[in-house]
Amino acid sequence: MLQALGIDNYGINNVVGGIVGMSSLITSTMSASISRYITYSIGQGDKERLKTMFSTSVNAQIVMSIIAVIILEIFGLWFLNNEANIPEGRMTAAYWVFQCSIISLVIGLISSPYNALLIAHERMGIYAYTSIAEVTLKLIVVFTILSFDGDRLILLSILNVFVGLGMRVFYGWYCSKYFEESNYNVKIFDKRLLKELTVFSGWNLLNNGAWVFATQGINMLVNVFFGVAYNAARGIAQTVNGAVQGFVGNFTMAFSPQITKTYAAGDKEYAIQLGNRGTKFSWLMMYIFIVPVFCEAETLLKIWLGQVPEWSVLFLRFAMFESLAVSSGQNLFRLIQADGNVKKYTVHAAITAGMIFPLAWLIYYLGAPVWVAYLIFIFDFMVLNIVRFFDMKRLMPFSIHQFMREVFVPCMRVSVVSFILPLIVCYYMEIGLLRFFINVPLAVLWTIACSVVFGLTKNERIFLKNKFLVIIR
């Protein structure tokens, strides 16, 4: 895509898409609430409530889509015209990206109850196949625009809408065929359920608002203070980071419905065990990617992109640890969501995460370098995990001491030891393809070995060994 669009157009695509991404301040809160309530209803075994919940959720998302479109067409267009710092002559293309991004947002919103059903029913195989299909279609789109002589940014935006629409049609067909509760009825609009969803979402609105400003908001600050070229570099780092987060997230996603269902069934202690185990596995899996990418970021980007935008290497290294800070707390957040009593936690989390945007704006205003925002983000989200500890202790029989012993200490051991051998290779070998093809597999195998030896318990090692033998057979 970078080769097809060029650095400036790639940066425009990143920042304009970020304007629409800001709308998740009002939309992703409802999507997360729907996922939680659908999974909770399955855990309780209440099929009638589940049917009502699904149709009410779709109707709620349609209403949210209308609200999002109105807000974006007013405030989003104002920002695009006055503050986005779009290069001269590219405003028409930016308008196309903006409008197509809005359409994609609406498609995604209406699809979210169907996605929630797939995950709640733990149809991870279908979820994996659809993810592969979506990525393949996007790759076809990139090759298509490479051979196009017109405005490639406009064509990219239009084709991405069709990819999203195709995935939406498939999700609707699959769910209607295999899940009886997915028969959508426009007349079903349970006000009591909608009120529950709205109250739950209302408190999460603060939390998600802080998240959006900490991510898409920072993209816009970078564009305002430094320009689209820096945003292109940040976009490349986010692309690699998104691929890694997607892999780790899909692997650990199996924990999410299990945590909610177990909690709904009343077994809080086992739900906490699942949350702790999921946190440790997320951390260890992230490190399998962090170590080789950190050590060989420069060569990786040269092989992948050819023309590497300035700052991309440094941004990528920071972005990997930024992703670690986020993913390490996701299963703890799911535990709090499973409980449903999110009021106090949301206020605490919003205050903590909400500091990222104003601090980044302040340091940029004072003349700080562009990469300092990453340090603020990483530190802030590590503090947020500590905030989660005390909120979970208030809501459930959660032991901070047990978490430190079973999760934090093993993860820290792996974090330190896993870098030793790859950094020795970096010190004694010159940077280049030879070192890359030696060090990357070495770093992956070494980190896996460190994770098994220093990160897993005896029972977890036995479980892993048995699973490995089953796969080999």
Give the gist of this structure.
With 473 residues, the chain is an all-alpha fold. The chain is built from 21 helices and no strands.
What does this structure look like?
With 473 residues, the chain is mainly α. 85% of the residues lie in helices and 0% in strands. The protein contains 21 helices and no strands. It starts with a helix and ends with a helix.
The run of helices and strands is: HHHHHHHHHHHHHHHHHHHHH
Distance between the termini: 40 Å
Tally of individual domains: 2
Shape assignment: globular
Largest beta sheet, briefly?
none
Strand content: under 5%
Helix content: over 70%
Would you tell me the overall average pLDDT?
A: 82
- Quantity of strands, as a count: 0
Any idea what the radius of gyration is? 23 Å
Structural class: mainly alpha
What's the tally of helices? 21
**Low-pLDDT windows of residues:** none
Top keywords for this entry?
2 domains, mainly alpha, 473 residues, 21 helices, globular, single chain
SSE topology sketch:
Elements lengths: L1 H4 L1 H15 L2 H21 L2 H36 L8 H30 L3 H23 L5 H27 L12 H36 L1 H25 L2 H10 L3 H28 L1 H9 L6 H16 L2 H10 L3 H11 L2 H10 L6 H24 L4 H18 L2 H9 L4 H23 L2 H15 L1
Helix pairs in contact: 2-5, 2-8, 2-9, 3-4, 3-5, 3-8, 3-10, 4-5, 5-7, 6-7, 8-9, 8-15, 8-16, 9-11, 9-13, 10-11, 10-14, 11-13, 11-14, 11-18, 11-20, 13-17, 14-17, 15-17, 16-17, 18-20, 19-20
